[in-house]
Amino acid sequence: MKLVLGSDHAALDLRHFLAERLESEGHTVIQVGASSPDSYDYPDAADAAVKVLNFGEADLGILICGTGIGISIRANRHPGVRAALCTTEFMATMAREHNHANILCLGARVLGTEQAAFVVRAFLTATPSDGPRHLARIQKIDGRINGE
Ligand code: RB5
């Protein structure tokens, strides 16, 4: 799978850890965002990752900041993005299956590295449900039913 991983400075170590792990599992990884421990604004990492997704250079994204909150809020301002902040494997599976999330958000100050890797694996191995009720709700999320 082609993945884009973005983070601010607070999540640089976790991003590098996950990128290495994912590449060792055969995924192609593009990294965006902070490149040093110097302060880096998480909205810029979100914007850069969404650009990669919109260019079709990645299938899914993973965005990480200290809590995962700020970067998920920014990512979700972009049309077509469904970014899900997850702390457990169950949440990550549901985010893909029920919400068709295309970006997983994580908090580097919330999860340990191995727990984060488990959450990522759950996200990447889940299959979006084609159940009509889920499809209808996703259309509503994206404003395609409410006439927006
Ligand atoms: C950076 O200190 C921190 O605010 C950021 O990583 C994130 O937690 C914001 O939501």
Protein model, in words:
The chain is an alpha/beta fold and 148 residues long. It has a single domain (2-141), classed as Sugar-phosphate isomerase, RpiB/LacA/LacB (Ribose 5-phosphate Isomerase B, Chain: A), CATH 3.40.1400.10. 44% of the residues lie in helices and 18% in strands. The protein is built from six helices and five strands; from the N terminus they run E-H-E-H-E-H-E-H-E-H-H. The protein has helices spanning 12-24, 42-54, 69-75, 89-97, 113-125, 132-141; strands spanning 2-7, 28-33, 60-65, 83-85, 103-107. The model has no long low-confidence stretch (mean pLDDT 96). Bound molecules: D-ribose.
Give keywords.
alpha/beta; binds D-ribose; 148 residues; Ribose 5-phosphate Isomerase B, Chain: A; single chain
By DSSP, the count of extended strands is 5
Low-confidence stretches at least 5 residues in length (pLDDT < 50)? none
Q: Structural class of the secondary structure composition? A: alpha/beta
What ligands does this structure carry? D-ribose
Give the name of the CATH architecture. 3-Layer(aba) Sandwich
The name of the CATH topology is Ribose 5-phosphate Isomerase B, Chain: A
Q: Roughly what is the average pLDDT, rounded to an integer?
A: 96
Largest β sheet strand count, sense and barrel closure:
5 strands, parallel
Shape: globular
Question: How much helix, percentage-wise, in residues?
Answer: 40-55%
Give the percentage of residues in beta strands: 15-25%
The number of distinct helices, counting runs of at least 4 residues, comes to 6
Name of the CATH superfamily: Sugar-phosphate isomerase, RpiB/LacA/LacB
CATH class: Alpha Beta
N- to C-terminal distance = 32 Å
Number of domains: 1
